[in-house]
């Protein structure tokens, strides 16, 4: 039966080739597009997960609404209060209220891999007559290396050098350029209260993100002393053993303390919404593969059935039953689907390998050549193979069933 199916396909070389190319190109395109989209997805998620804390425990910032104080000022007639200039301001806190209880809670939680207290403040960096405002982040250097991947981006010096203390600072590449400062030089840092303090530049980091590279890191004790707020922290960064649980854990923690607790995906919901659009494009690719391959196979088999009516009559007269005739034409579509899909998978894989050698993105420490991030996940190839196989099978059913219903007497009556 397989021999007859192959012979019928060979007899119609042009139609068979066009159908094969439809399945081949559709499968190859699905592999390449899915690899690109998923590679970009994985790259962005890795950046969001590793470059910052996976859960941020921050001092709560609630803002006054226009009528929030009406009842407090006008107890009996607060429903009829209208403000020319409504109350405004911040009802929150400047710091985490009880950081020690958070440290104990995080240390006991088996889901937590590491945590680091932070004190983030606006600062003015001065060198000679040059002054630049930037964000100064005070952290526990040893713990911060476990929570984020900032240490991997240090290109001069070592991030752990901050742990020595003594007013040391690591500047972002952009901030160093704006100040014109070099390694082992001293800058004066002021937070607006008190006198400026000298800080020795012991390192430089470069992430490729201009905003991130305009910040600076120092030991939290030095920043607390500079800020005049000993033992104060305004954020605790947390890294989990499974980052996918971050949203559920953050929501649960937000119910047990006054601090604002957000996960990495909650803070980047707008960015992650782009991936839903990518998924829609991928699914449209699946639909395209199914339609192109299905119509091609259906047309080829339908024409073959009409042109091979006499052969069907002869086969039925020789003793071939309905199932044999159905399998004869069904196997033709299956052969096209399997061969086209298999060749498309191999071509898609090597095309993805080629895309990985294209310098398309800006150079960064984690990707110095700026190559494209292409996913080679086995799930992509399994999905592509299933799409090719299912589309060819579905498109083969109707012509095969039509061929199986033909009997010798019906063919003779129809003039076959």
From TrEMBL:
Keywords: Cell membrane, Membrane, Transmembrane, Transmembrane helix
Record domain ABC3 transporter permease C-terminal: where: 284-408
A Pfam family that the UniProt record links to this protein: FtsX
Membrane association type: Multi-pass membrane protein
Compartment(s) of residence: Cell membrane
TM regions (residue ranges): 20-44, 280-301, 322-351, 380-398
Residues annotated as domain MacB-like periplasmic core: 16-250
PANTHER family recorded: LIPOPROTEIN-RELEASING SYSTEM TRANSMEMBRANE PROTEIN LOLE
Family per similarity comment: Belongs to the ABC-4 integral membrane protein family. LolC/E subfamily.
Protein name: ABC transporter permease
Species per Swiss-Prot/TrEMBL record: Bdellovibrio svalbardensis
